[in-house]
Structure formats: C-alpha cells, structure tokens
Amino acid sequence: MGAAKRPLVFAYYVTGHGFGHATRVVEVARHLILAGHDVHVVTGAPDYVFTTEIQSPHLFLRKVCLLFCNVHGELLRGSDETVYSLLPVVQVLLDCGAVQADALTVDRLASLEKYSETAVVPRETILATEVEWLKSIKADFVVSDVVPVACRAAADAGIRSVCVTNFSWDFIYAEYVMAAGHHHRTIVWQIAEDYSHCEFLIRLPGYCPMPAFRDAIDVPLVVRRLHKPREEIRKELGIGEDVKTVILNFGGQPSGWTLQEKFLPSGWLCLVCGASESLDLPPNFVKLAKDAYTPDLIAASDCMLGKIGYGTVSEALAYKIPFVFVRRDYFNEEPFLRNMLEFYQAGVEMIRRDLLTGHWGPYLEHALSLKPSYEGGINGGEAAAKILQDTAYGKNYAADKLSGARRLRDAIVLGYQLQRAPGRDLSIPDWYANAENELGLRTGSPTTLMSEDTFFTPSRPEDFEILHGDCMGLSDTMTFLKSLSELDGILVSGITEKLQKRERKAAAGLFNWEEDIFVARAPGRLDVMGGIADYSGSLVLQMPTREACHVAVQKLHPSKQRLWKHALARQNAKGQGPTPVLQIVSYGSELSNRGPTFDMDLSDFMDGDQLMSYENARSFFARDPSQRWAAYIAGTILVLMKELGVHFENSISVLVSSAVPEGKGVSSSAAVEVATMSAIAASHGLNIEPRQLALLCQKVENHVVGAPCGVMDQMTSACGEANKLLAMVCQPAEVLGLVDIPSHIRFWGIDSGIRHSVGGADYGSVRIGAFMGRKIIKSVAAELLSQSTANGLTSDDLEEDGIELLETEASLDYLCNLSPHRYEALYVNQLPQTILGEAFLGKYADHNDPVTVIDTKRNYGLRAATRHPIYENFRVKAFKALLTSATSDDQLTALGELLYQCHYSYSACGLGSDGTDRVVQLVQEMQHSKHSRAGEGTLYGAKITGGGSGGTVCIVGRNCLRSNEQIIQIQKRYEGATGYLPIVFEGSSPECAPTQLELNRQSTRFRVWGRTRWSGSPTRPSRVTLRTQCRPEKEKGVAIVWFRNDLRILDNEVLHTAWASSQALLPVYCVDPRLFGATHHFGFPKTGAMRSQFLIECLSDLKQNLMKRGLNLLIQQGKPEQILPSLAKAYGVHTVYAQKETCSEEVNVEKLVSKNLRKVVLPSAEGVSTKHKSSNVTNLDLIWGCTMYHIDDLPFNCTSLPDVYTQFRKSVESNSTIRSCIKVPASLGPMPDVKDWGCIPDASMLGIQPEKACFERNVVHRGRKRSTETYKVTRNGMLGPDYSTKFSPWLAFGSLSPRFIYEEVKRYEKLRVSNDSTYWVLFELIWRDYFIFLSIKAGNSLFYVGGPRGVQTNWSQDQALFDAWRNGQTGYPLVDANMKELLATGFMSNRGRQIVCSFLVRDMGVDWRIGAEWFESCLLDYDPCSNYGNWTYGAGVGNDPREDRYFSILKQGQSYDPDGEFVAYWLPQVKPLPKEKRHNPGMMMYMKPIVALKFGNTKASGARRGGVEEKKGKSYRGNRVQ
Ligand SMILES: Cc1cc2nc3c(=O)[nH]c(=O)nc-3n(C[C@H](O)[C@H](O)[C@H](O)COP(=O)(O)OP(=O)(O)OC[C@H]3O[C@@H](n4cnc5c(N)ncnc54)[C@H](O)[C@@H]3O)c2cc1C
C-alpha cells in the first residue's frame, strides 16, 4: 500500500461483538496509518489492544461503551469482564453486541431488548451525537465493523461509508427475532436500512449471509502479524520443544470452573489467556499476562483450545495451529466459521461436557494429527486498507456483485427467519445450523464465490457423488459417507493391513465401487414416557436420539459381487457358479465382543420350495452366538420376503455403522432394523411408508430375533422428528402426531451401565403378567355381565350404561383402554399378586399374547404388571397435556412427578435396577438440595426407560446451563459411587425419517461409465429417488438451448432435455430489439431502464452458471427468428429447445423461429442424432416450464379453466401434484467450438439510459416499509401476516423456478413448521399459475379494452389525469406514494398495485390499458399474464365478475398504513404532518386532489373537476372494498 496522496481522516466504528473484531480492526487501521492517514477508532475495547500494535500520533481512540452483558444487563464474569471493566465512564452505547447468558450461550431475547434499549430508543440522540462528532473530527470516510448506526450517521453527515466484516446484524437479529416474536422485526429492518447507506462491503472469509449489502469485495483473512518467532516465545516462557503446548483462548470462561491438573495428558502444558488474577492454576497450566500478545503465543503453541469466534478461527488458520473448539449455543456466525475450519482441516470439535469435565486428552491428541492447510493469504488488513483508501480518494471499485443466486439465497435465509411463527422455534433451525453442508464446503474460502450449486444441492465429499437424496445437513451422515468413500482407499493406498481393524478391512472388500450404494440413517430413541406399557396399548412419548445408525447397501448381480475368501471358497465348492450371497459387516464389534462379519447364501432362507419359517430363522441365527446380531439385519430380508413377497435375486452387501450404543435402552436394535430395511427397500425400488416399515421391523425383532418388543422403538426411529416427542398409541401403532418439546424444557438420558439386573423380573415375564391380567379382567367382566343378565335387566339408564361398560371390558382389547378408576372399583381385588404359570393356564387356557410363552413352572407377578399399563397410560396423557400447557414451575414439577411415579411403578413390577435407582436418587438429591431450592430448580424428575432392569434413565429439567452442570455432577457422582462413567444422551436427532442416498464413486480411478443425472419425481421430498443415467449413446449432434424467460440452470427442463438428447449444447440468448421498443398503444418504453438492468444481471448470472458447468452463453443482438436458423446451420443443430410461452407476442416469435428453421437444410447428417437424421432439418421443441403445476398435470384442459380462481386452486390442489425439480448434471459440456460468445449487453446497447436498478436495495427498502406496516397493523390486531417474498422479478425472468420455491417451502415445513405463512407463498404462486393458464384460455382478449368478458366501457384517455397518476401527483398520498415507489424502484406491493389500479379506473375513469402499459414499462417483474390478468380483474373486465372491486383510498390507508409511515417515506411533504393527517392532509398541506373519490368525501380541485364530470355517465358496477 503506497503512501497517501493526501492524508485522510477515517472514522472507524467497531462492534461490541467480541474481541476478535477489535483485533482485526487494528490491522486495517495500522495499514491506513502507515499510509499516512489519521484513524479515529470508536471502540469499547481497552487501549492496549490498539496501542501495542500502533504507536502513532495518527491513532485516536474514542471510547464508547460496547458492552457484553448478561441477561440482567450486568457485565459478564471472566476474561471479558477483565477486558471491559477497564472502560472509562460510559459515554454512549452504539451497538451492544450479543448479550450472553453465559460464556457459551447467546441470549437472543435479551440481545434484542438490549439493542432496542440502547440503539433504538435513543436513536435520534445517537445520530445527532455521531454526526456532530464526525463533523468535529472532519472525517473524510467512515468505516464500520459493523455498527449499523455508523453508516446512517455517516450519511447524515454527508460522509461516505464502507463496512468491513464477516457478519452483519440484520442476519443475526433476524434469527433472534424468531425467538423473540415478530414485534421486534422493525429492528432488523432498521439495521438493514442503516447498512444500506454504506457503499459496499469488504467481506472477510468465513462470512455469514449478509442480505443488506448489495455489493461485496472479498479480501483474505485479517490477522495480526507475528512479532516474534516461535522458538523465541517458547524460550521466553521456558517451554522446551518437546513439551506439547495448548493455548486456552476462551474469553469469558464459565463461572465456577476450575482448571485441574488431570485435564491435560502428561507431557502437555496449557497457556491460559485472560485468566483473572485470583484464579489459581495447577502446575501444568501457565497464566499469561493480561496484555500478552496472543498471536505470538498461538503460533508458539501446538494447538489452541477455545470457543469459536472470528479472531480465534482466523488466527488458528493463519498460523496453521489446530483448533479444538467448543460450540456456542445460538451463536449465528459459528456454522460458517466452523465450515472454514473444517475445510482447511484445522478444527476438532470438543463437546461441552468434555470441556467442562476435563476430558481433553483425546481431542488434543487428535488435534496434533491434523495438518491445517490454509493457504489463502493473511494480508486482509492491508488489502482492506488499500480498498478503503482508494475508495476514499474516489476510485470506483468494480465490486464483485453478489450473484443473483447468492443474493436470493441470502434473502431466502432472512425471509424464512422472519416468516416464522413467533415463539415457535427457540433453537437454531437445523438447516441453518448445518449450513456448512447446505452451503458447500467452500463457504469460507475467499477465492470461491458462493455458487448456485453449493447452495442448492447438498454438499458432498470430494471423491464421491451423492446421486440422489439428501443428507439433511447431518454431519454424522456426511462422516459416514466420507468413511465409506475412503474404504477402498484402504486397499488402493496400500496402507499396511496390520493397521486396519478387521472390520474395516472386511468392509473395504464389501462393495463394488462401480455400482450404486444406498445409504439410510435411523436414530435411536429415548423413552420419555410410556415404555413397557406399549404392548398394552398405551400412549407413549418418544424422543429420537441424536445418535443414529447408518446402513449402506449394495444390490449386485452375483457375478459382480466381491466375495470374501471363505464365501468364495464355499461357492466354488458348490460348483454352481455365482449365486446370490448376503454379506454383512457391522462396525463396533470390538466394543460388544462379537464377530464383525456375517455372510449367508440367500438360498439359505429357503426350506425346499418354501420360505424358511420364522421359528427356523430364529434358530438359524442363534447357531453362532457371535453372529446372532445378524438376525436384526438379515431378518429384514426374510420379513420383506415373507410379508411383502419380495424376491431377492441379486446379491446384497450391507455395511452397518451405528452410533446408538447397544444395551443402553435407547433402542439400538430398532435403529439398525429401520436403517437396514430402509436401505434395502431403496436399493430394490420398494416404496414402504414409514409406518409400515416400522411394523415390518417389529416383526424382525419379534419373529426373527425373538425379542418380544412393542413397536414404539421402530416407529420413533422411522417417524420421529428433532426437538419433538413422537406421540403414539400402541393399538397397535397409531401415530398421533408430534409434540413440540417446549424450549424451556429439556430431556436427558443417563445410562446406568447396567445391561440387566440379575435379580429383577425380566421384561418378558412382566409382559406375560400384564396379558394374564387382561385375561382375568375380561373374564371377571364377563362374569359380572352374566350375573347382571341373570338377575334380569332393568330399564334404568344408568345401569344400562354400566352393562355397556362391562361388555366392553369383557372384550377388552388393550389393558390401557381400562381407566384407573374402573380398575380400582371392580378388578383390583380379583387379581392375585402372583400366579404360577400352570395355575393360570389351567384356569384360563391362554394369555393371548402371540410373542410370549408362559413357563408353567414360573411364578408371574400379576397385579403390579397389570396395574402399571393402566396407570401409565393415564400418566402419559397427563404428561402430554402438561407439555402443551402454559409455562410455569408447577408444570415442570408435575412433569417430573409423573416421571417419578412411572419409575416406581417399574420397580413394583420388578423391572428396576440398582443403577437406575441410583441415578433417580441422585436427581432427587440434586432437585432437593439447598442450592437448588434457593434458586430456580433445574432438574425435576427421572425414570427408568424402555424395557427396564437397567439401561438409561430419562431426566426432565429446565433447559439451562445450570441443568447441564447438574447432569455432569450426577454423571460424576455416579462414577464415584460405581466406577462407571455413564453416557449422557442429550439432544434429539435433526432428521429421523431414514434418508436415502445413492452413492456412486466419481473418482476417475473407479468410474467406468459415463455421466449421471438427477431425475425422478419424489413421492416424499425427503425420500427422493434418483437413477443414474448415461447420456444415451445414440443421441448425437448439437442442440441449441434458446433461453427466453427461463434464465436458470436449476429445474430447467429445456436445458436438461437438450443435454440428454445431444452430444454438445449451444446455449443462446437473443437480445430481441422488439423487447426494447415501445408498448403497443401508448408508446412507453417496452422494457424500462430498471428491468433492462435486471435482465443484464440475470444474463450475467446465467452465463457464469453455465460456465461453471462447462458451457457458456452465446449472446446475440437481433431477432431469434433470424439468429437461431443461422446458428442451426452453422453448427448443424438438430433441435432448438426452448420454453413454451403463452402470450401472442412470444408465440408469434415461436412461429417465426419454427418457420425459418424449417428452411434450414443441414449440411450433412453425419454425427447428427439418428432421431433427426432422416429429416435433415432443425426442429423447434417447445417445452413447458414456467408454472408450478405442469400444464399436463392439470385436471382440465386450459380451454375449460374455471373462471373463478378459488375453483381453479381447489381443483389443482386436490387433483394435481407438483412435479419435482429437474436437476441438471454438474457438467453440461462439451460445448461446440464458438469463436465469439458475445458479451452481456450494457444499458446503452439496449437503448436505455444507464440507471442502477438496485433491486435488492429497493426491495429491501420496500420490505422494510411493508414490515413496518405489517408490524403496526398486526399490533393493532387488524391484519394477518403479510410477508412479501419479492420473488416476482426472478420468477418473471425465469431465474427462479416456482417448483424450486415449492420444494423449499415443503422442505422448510418438514424441518420446522407448517403454517399459514408457509402455505401462503404457495397460494400466491397458484395465482401466478392461474394467470398463465388464463392467458391460454383468454388469448388476446386479455389485451383488449373489453377484456375477456368483452365489457363495453367509455374510458377516458385524459393525458393530464394519467400524468398526475403516473408521476404520483394525484393529491392522494397513498396513490402518489405507490406511484413514486414504482418510478424509483420498479416495484410496488400487490396491495399498492390494486389501489392505484382501482384509483385509475374507478376514480379517474381512465382506460385501464394505459395503466397496464405503464406497469409493463416500469415493473421489474413485468409478466404479460400476471400484469394483464390483474389489470383486467382490477378494471372489472376480467373473466371473473366477482373480482370487480373498488378500493377506497382512505380506508386502505387506515387499514394498511395506519400511521402513514409508508406515505411519509415516499412523500417528504407529508412527513412533518401528524400521523392521522398523512392520508388526508388537506389541500393546504399537500396538493389538491385531482379528482373526487367515487365513494369519498374529497372535493376535486376546480381545475380538474372537468375530468370527473366527463365520466358522470359511466355507471360503476363493481363491488366496493372497504
Ligand atoms: C394491477 C396489477 C398488476 C400486476 N402485475 C404483475 C406483473 O406484471 N408481474 C407479476 O409477477 N405480478 C404482477 N402482479 C401481481 C403481484 O402484485 C406481484 O406478483 C407481487 O406483488 C410481487 O411481489 P412478491 O414477489 O413479493 O409477491 P408475494 O406476495 O410474495 O407472492 C409470491 C409470488 O406469488 C405470485 N403472485 C402473488 N400475487 C399475485 C397476483 N396477484 N397475480 C399473479 N401472481 C401473483 C408472484 O409470482 C409472487 O412473486 C400484479 C398485480 C396487480 C394488482
């Protein structure tokens, strides 16, 4: 960076969001100062942060209070405190940053409140102070990292500004808003508004989406430079080279946490940053000075341990130091930073529990094995300073405009967050939390722009390709896939076999890498309530665990299967050649002391011609105890054969990898069964509904394994969802739905480590007891009934009811259908406490349970086993009701009490165990400790789970850090008492329906055949099916893709069809001069400047996206009917593929193109598709692609389209399905040899005045106003949600497919919530579809003055009236504001459009077509169908007479802009007026209304009155809208 031409004054605002921001500002400021400028830093960080690095009179520090607070607004304890407690007297609070509940948790609600209190309420004062200050220091330029109000203050002071950052508060607070409720939404818009005043963004690696910024320039990492070499630092600290050193860089350590010697493995030393003076450290920990220069210390260490933040991540990457990190709850930047760490192989995630309990060893050792590989440059400080300096001197940076896809993505991220129902989601949405997968692995790389690919398709490890399905962002699935992809490397790379575990070796030989592999995932479950009462038909509540099982399956022709040596030997011995074999590898064999592999001939399932019986299957798998486990896996095949009649003619290879621990009562077996059956079903094209799949898996367990389980485990595994409890009535398996776990409640599982209590009655005998009990109850009821009947019936109604009850009980199907009071009243005394098997059988013959067998010699506990399910069902129902009741301490206490009652009921049945009792006791001790009683209670109840007799205890508590600490204490105390450190299960699985993936190795080493493509129409979005497919050999030659209003890659059937039918593709866009001519009647520019600019951007995006797929976009100026035939001739094109349009201008062009193509005779048929060879002419193939519902899927012909929209909507919604998006392959090449691809036209080439369309800014701005409007209206309870998506411009140009929106909405609904807002988006898109189909039915009548209904009206074409309307000078602020908005931005809300349309045609009586053509010219989203369709409706000439409406301007203003904020924004004249006057300001304050309102009380100005008089004769026909 050279010396300054002229010294400048920079004002640099630094966010209060953590220390890393201040340190990176140092670097940028340092370079600015080096270049000779003055830098005034506005910061809350202590001086030394800046002065150790910059000792210069050109640095000025202005201290403001940028606090980190806790929920109570107090400073945080820990090292942050030490930083910030050094602050001088508070001057002003600009940006409070995130408020943290503790060192690892951001408190979002408190953050919003703090922001509101500190930045919104005193906003005017802040702005005034800042403007004055900026002027006082004569600032030339403002830099903000990334304090929103600084940008606005700069604008107010007339100074330019730029932001330098990796995150922005609009995005962060949008997330907080979701938790806090929509009434905080204005904060987000306010922030976006503030940011919009800055010119562009200098974006740092690892960035979050930042929708508020239109332009971004990427720079490398900004890190502080090193002062001293590693050796010198270590020498100074007295650390030998052989001492492994970790630097603990935590900032705000959890309170009450003491570092202990045993945390570190021997030979390790830990350098502690920011330790308070009072902190005592063990000998292997070294306290660093408060102002120690951490970059040097980091670089001198072997790894770093800390919480993720920009500073720690960037310095770890820069100095190539592995970073062991701990996640922070609700810290929105984290996924993006983590992503960057993972990408550069510099991160190891440590779970919080292990951090706190000091299980550091494995993580530290793992960290040392990493080889961080960041090479992306670390001179971001200098680069940013140079850009800032040059911009301040006036250089116009050609910023990397964020691509359309990127901007859209950001908008969707923000839009989705803001649309959520308030209070519903307290946790980070999974799709966002797992954004590293959604966003691709390269998010953080400064050199890689976000591409459409990385956002829209799931990311994939480098060396294999997911051909179909979705990982749903699950990191364990990604890890499994990665490990799968590395398997064959084991053999190829020649790593010594000795090093490989047996099972890995076996797995490496399992698959044929040239064939598809199908993967499914299924989680375990924590039994929250219900447990063993399932077999008695109880309601149960189950939570899918975070831990899951993955199964990979490959179906192969026997000749292609790689057989293990012994299996091959067996086959050879049979001498029949290759026959179908099942080979299974199951990981984790060492832990559970079993064999890792299993194989059998599929013919072993046959007994002669018959399928083997279940009984024989049980003994078959029981032969070898070390291979009994195979019954859970192979059993799925037998069950599919027996129950569904599936024939398995091919070999099957299966790899099982389960993270659900065995024997802990968390349903590891169900997870294995469900994952296996899902993968087998997927690989064999079987579509089995989740419920049916669960029932089949239960059969595996009951009949093949021989375990008498209920079905809830399999149901939860197959149908559960994250953060929800699956509610199911086990009669036999009716899923009632999902119950949200309220955000203040949390469930944990603590495993007792006890697999089976020897002394306890086992599950089977308790089950038998319950079934016996039912039998006895039935027989007692029957007896009572016969007595009543024998006594002669009475006519008393009450007694009749009693008899009915007895009748029901005499045929009681499930014990749980008996209520506790009936049990107590009639039956309890009839039931013996215990009964001998033979005594029972002697009296009752059978207990009617198909899966248990009574042992005649065994004594069964009967009364407790019967009582348990009857009461348990009642408890579970109460539990469910409580979960959804109002939040209170009583709620938690009652929930806890129900758990305890259940626990003791298990014990009464003999299903308790010492271990589980101990855990429950520990929970009670914790609950009743003085400490807990003094503050808020945290843990409230606990119970044994599942089958009992050991296993896992479920605990309910308050969702807070204190509870976590108590859980850890329980874990430790349990360890202290028993020597066993229990596993803690916490968190649920983000996605429980098995995810099916097909894998196909794409590495060149293994790929033997051609391309793959996406296709298929999924029945359920989560279970998409995809076939691999080569481009058909016979299709040859070149095809043209003629892009029209389908400027996209994704879901573009035209592109896909063209690719599939040719050897090479030539994508073409014709800049048709007719589009830039004049409108039909009134001669406005047909495509206005804004839309032209938007088109340019869309073309640019399309070109880039095509280039990424190995193609390009040929752009030619001229008419398609001239360009395309000549290209067809030059390139020997067999077919031109294009999207079918519906309106006459477009259809005419199609006709001309087709006609002229027919005149082209191809020079030679050689190499041309055989399909086309015979004709030797080029075809035009028009493909439907613009609607959400495909035209071929409509339940009627377009000519009989219903005239009423609602009829249309209902009909398609109930009769048609929406096709899934077409995915195009990653590579579309090769492309033909084109000399000149043409260039993206600029505005002047299109004959328009260059003008910056700034759609985002306009729309963001528009969104803000709408949001404000909605906020106010919602607050007043007058309007439902109105969150406009701003999709229309992209839809109009086809850059976005409506089907893609549909899929995203559905995906979102599946992941999170389905509500009116989510449906509403689709509802509006159906309107769009409707107008497109209507344009076919109505034909050109859509453009005629009488519209589709041919209505005769004497419209005026008064130029003065029209001019007043279009220029926003009608004297009606609401009309004027909307029209000004259209002029300035090219956009207007739907309501605005309706209002101005009604005003033009109703109140002014002006010809609707002038309005429609004006819209055609101005709108960014102009689309003939929607525009003319809506205008004909608005003018009362549309085909549905009921849509003929009058909009009362004043009423509309009162309803939708009650405080006049919208009009004040666009009309500065009305801004000073009181709110109630803004819509009706009167002539003195605004301008005179140009016409009187048809139904209003305004008087027109004298000059214009004539205009109204002229229309007197026209009678108004429409409905009146108030
Ligand atoms: C007089 C008049 C003229 C219009 N001209 C156009 C036009 O040229 N192009 C255009 O796309 N829309 C037009 N509309 C429809 C509507 O105003 C816009 O689609 C909508 O305001 C765009 O904003 P959005 O994307 O935020 O919509 P949202 O309200 O978020 O709706 C989502 C999507 O649904 C579709 N949609 C919503 N409302 C309608 C509707 N009434 N008719 C058709 N589709 C709808 C759009 O594709 C829109 O993008 C017109 C409406 C009126 C009253």
UniProtKB/TrEMBL annotation:
Keywords: ATP-binding, Chromophore, Nucleotide-binding. GO terms for molecular function: ATP binding; DNA photolyase activity. Residues 1501-1522 are annotated as: Disordered. Pfam families: DNA_photolyase, FAD_binding_7, GalKase_gal_bdg, GHMP_kinases_N. One of its GO terms (biological process) is carbohydrate metabolic process. It comes from the Eukaryota. Residues 1037-1178 form the Photolyase/cryptochrome alpha/beta domain. Belongs to the DNA photolyase class-1 family. NCBIfam families: crypto_DASH. This is Photolyase/cryptochrome alpha/beta domain-containing protein. It comes from Salvia splendens (Scarlet sage).
